[in-house]
């Protein structure tokens, strides 16, 4: 890219909901690190989104620190990207209000995640859960992000962000960039090892189905050995072989080998050998992440320096855009 050409802005966020899974890693955080050279990247820990479901405060604080340490351990460089904590940057809440007044009750009612989550927590259908996508729109629009890496479950929220941005621009004059989704090229979706028709998730009842990026080697290998496959014996990628397909995807992501190469490598070998190989490859791949994490989480001063730098940089960028939005909406300028 020529030096004087402005890089596109990427923003993404992840909720601090406890240990990250292999699915979070492959689907999101691993790609965050890769994008840093080609884009101006902003990455945040979405602690404000986390409290739309009930949280234990001490646990949330710890999860937020750990989530921040984890993204750095996975290669997000706090000197190269803006890596920050959402609640530390007041512009998100400020823009949230403005955007809420340009968002319709009807469109929020149609969000499938709201419907799912309120069905799951019928005793706590709070207003924050309902307006969650507005805050997400504020996260994105406060930086005029061009691209937003998201999983499929967030595509509807991104679509809403575009609609709200467009409405605001029409009502008050051009300000916000309409963001596009950035869907990573491959291996975006990792399935449960216990039920390969379902997405790998920490809320999976069967914990053998879910690999955490901080699991130790023995645990990782044990979980892969128990992975559900099929009654065939040949390692090949094919429709209906969800378990094997998932293992091949995972192996491909951590080794860089393609499916043909993997099929050849395991020609004449059984599922048992393949599962062990995948387990070992995953644990080798995650070893440096785990080592980095252990180092970073025990160095509170370093962690604090990193997120403070990120918070300040994020505030500096978003303050300008949010001030313009306030002005356009008719608020008296602060002097
Ligand atoms: N809602 C996202 C999730 O749960 C996290 C998130 C919050 C986010 N704000 C964002 C993602 C802005 C992308 C952009 O996965």
How would a textbook summarize the main sheet?
Answer: 3 strands, parallel
Rg (C-alpha, Å): 21 Å
In this entry the ligands are: tryptophan
- What string gives the helices and strands in order? EHEHHEHHHHEHEHHHHH
The helical percent reads 40-55%
Which regions have little confidence, pLDDT < 50, spanning 5+ residues? none
How is the quaternary structure best described?
A: single chain
- How many β-strand runs? 5
Distance between the termini: 40 Å
What strand line-up does the widest sheet have?
1-2-3
Broad shape? globular
Helix/strand/pairing class, anyone? Answer: mainly alpha
Percentage of β-strand residues: 5-15%
Count of runs of 4 or more consecutive helical residues: 13
Q: Please, what is the average pLDDT? A: 95
Structure, described:
By secondary structure, this protein is mostly helical. It is built from 13 helices and five strands. It has helices at residues 22-35, 47-50, 57-73, 91-100, 105-109, 112-120, 127-141, 155-172, 217-225, 242-255, 259-265, 271-297, 300-329, and strands at residues 9-14, 40-45, 82-85, 147-149, 180-182. It has a three-stranded parallel β-sheet with strand order 1-2-3. Helix 4 crosses helix 7 (127-141) and helix 9 runs antiparallel to helix 12. The radius of gyration is 21 Å and the shape is globular. The two termini are 40 Å apart. The model has no long low-confidence stretch (mean pLDDT 95). Tryptophan (TRP) binds at residues 11-15, 46, 49, 136, 139-140, 148, 150, 154.
């Amino acid at each position: 890219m020529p030096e004087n050409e402005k890089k596109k802005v990427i923003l993404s966020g992840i909720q601090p909901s406890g240990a990250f899974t292999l699915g979070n890693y492959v689907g999101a955080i691993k790609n965050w690190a890769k994008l840093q050279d080609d884009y101006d990247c902003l990455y945040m820990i979405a602690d404000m989104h986390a409290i739309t479901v009930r949280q234990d405060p001490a646990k949330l604080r710890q999860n937020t620190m750990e989530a921040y340490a984890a993204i750095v351990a996975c290669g997000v460089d706090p000197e190269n990207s803006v890596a920050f904590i959402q609640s530390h940057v007041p512009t998100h809440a400020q823009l949230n209000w403005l955007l809420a007044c340009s968002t319709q009750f009807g469109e929020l009612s149609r969000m499938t995640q709201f419907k799912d989550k309120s069905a799951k927590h019928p005793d706590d259908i709070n207003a924050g859960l309902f307006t969650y996508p507005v805050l997400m729109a504020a996260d994105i629009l406060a930086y005029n992000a061009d691209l937003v890496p998201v999983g499929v479950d967030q595509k509807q929220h991104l679509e809403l962000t575009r609609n709200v941005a467009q409405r605001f621009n029409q009502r008050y004059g051009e300000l916000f960039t309409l963001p596009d989704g950035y869907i990573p090229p491959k291996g975006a979706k990792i399935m449960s090892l216990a039920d390969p028709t379902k997405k790998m998730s920490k809320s999976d009842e069967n914990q053998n189905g879910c690999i955490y990026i901080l699991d130790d080697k023995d645990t990782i290998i044990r979980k892969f050995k128990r992975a559900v496959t099929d009654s065939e014996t040949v390692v090949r990628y094919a429709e209906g072989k969800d378990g094997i397909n998932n293992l091949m995807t995972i192996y491909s992501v951590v080794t860089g080998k393609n499916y043909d190469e993997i099929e050849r490598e395991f020609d004449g070998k059984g599922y048992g050998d393949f599962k062990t190989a995948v387990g070992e490859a995953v644990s080798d791949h995650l070893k440096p992440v785990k080592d980095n994490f252990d180092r970073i989480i025990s160095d509170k001063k370093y962690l604090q320096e990193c997120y403070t730098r990120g918070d300040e940089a994020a505030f500096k960028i978003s303050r300008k855009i949010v001030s313009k939005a306030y002005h356009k909406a008719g608020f008296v300028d602060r002097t």
